[in-house]
Amino acid sequence: MLRAMLLACALAAPAAMADSKTYTVTAPDGVTLAVREAGDPHGAPLIFIHGLLGSTLNWEAQVADPRLQRYRLISYDMRGHGLSGKPAGAEAYSDGRRWAADLRAVITASRAARPVLVGWSLGGAVISNYLSAYGDGAIAGAVYVDGVIELKPEQIVAHPEVYRDLNAPDLKTHLDAVREFLRLCFHTQPAAPDFERLLANAAVASWDMQRAVQSMRVDLAGGLGKAEVPVLLIYGAQDALVKARPSIARAAEVNPRIRSKLYDASGHAPFIEEADRFNRDLAGFVDGLKR
Fold this sequence. Notes:
This protein has 13 helices and 8 strands. By secondary structure, it is an alpha/beta fold.
């Protein structure tokens, strides 16, 4: 019943989303991953990886932009999110290698030839762990969007009450924390209908995942540090969840080849808050790659 309701919500999203196709991919440990594709099926592939409490719905401003329609736009709900499987227990979420294996499964099943990986927030950590486990031979480049470089205090803004209450057993306390976490994602808050959809989307995420993912290890040196493909970091200067400048500095420390852009008017979600600029920068990055 819940899956049917979520699917109905997805189909009620903007028309550009309705024109896409959906299918599922099975991860090595048996978790089912919901995948959505849009754009030109013969275009250069981009794989979008959302952040904590997100889903494929986060990328509506990219899917709807005519400038990006010439690419093959692939996104998926990470384990514990959206329409993907939500296994019980911490083991399914605490090991970053499982999230990396999920991404590899999507690349393989979609037959995406040397895709560009675009990871928001937690999605950046997934990219790093993917690079650590599998290298960069199968991808053309990567874009970290306010990506989690490391789960360390010098890079993550402290919100102890929010992260504590995300794990509260009391439903009201938990949902209030989900709303506050989502509010912290934006310097400029979305319109009410958009925020409400994102809030409903966030509320269905696995509680077990929210508890366990906070201890997930990110292999920065072995992943991003060894990447030889082009990497672009885009951060919002007003980010209230991830410290933008320290994160960029740490990434550059392990990989001096990276490029970075700072959006002065954005918070944690520049691909939504400054979608026009983000889409233009993303297209420029993809078009500049050697394939």
